[in-house]
Amino acid sequence: MSSELEQAIKNRLETGFKNWNGGYDQWLEWCNTLYEPDAHYNVYGKRLTLEEYKHMMGEFFEKYDIRMGEFFNMLVEDDWCAIRYRTYILDKATGTEFEQMSFEFVHFKDNAQPIGARVIEGWATSTNPLSND
After folding, report:
1. Which of 14, 77, 80, 129 qualifies as a FRET site for 118, CA 20 to 30 Å off?
2. Contact 6/78 with Cβ under 8 angstroms?
3. pLDDT for the residue numbered 1
4. From CA 81, how far away is CA 6, in angstroms rounded?
5. What phi and psi, each to the nearest 5 degrees, are found at residue 44?
6. HSE-CB for 41 with a 13 A CA cutoff
7. pTM of the prediction?
């Protein structure tokens, strides 16, 4: 049986993924809800502050149309979550589309409502890392 926090984490991610596919502005809105203001995100071997992560994603959205795909696995225990999912990436310059499989390991903080569960720190990897070069 899952705890209230575990259910809150699952709900936060499932709702976010359903609302993710609206471009950078919509991603940014979800990002501001999902992450603690002082959160860190470890992606492509770099530990980024939340502001650095937002900037990097802004650069990616300028070059790519990034659409969230399907969840394959989500494991939640206490304040930790592991998720595996697919994204669909369209290179705006070339028109080439490819799939990317991602895995994330995420640590959450349990806040009182209306804030709720938010990310303290996350670690992500994917099969086809994007580049902002």
Report:
1. 129
2. yes
3. 44
4. 8
5. 55, 35
6. 20
7. 0.88
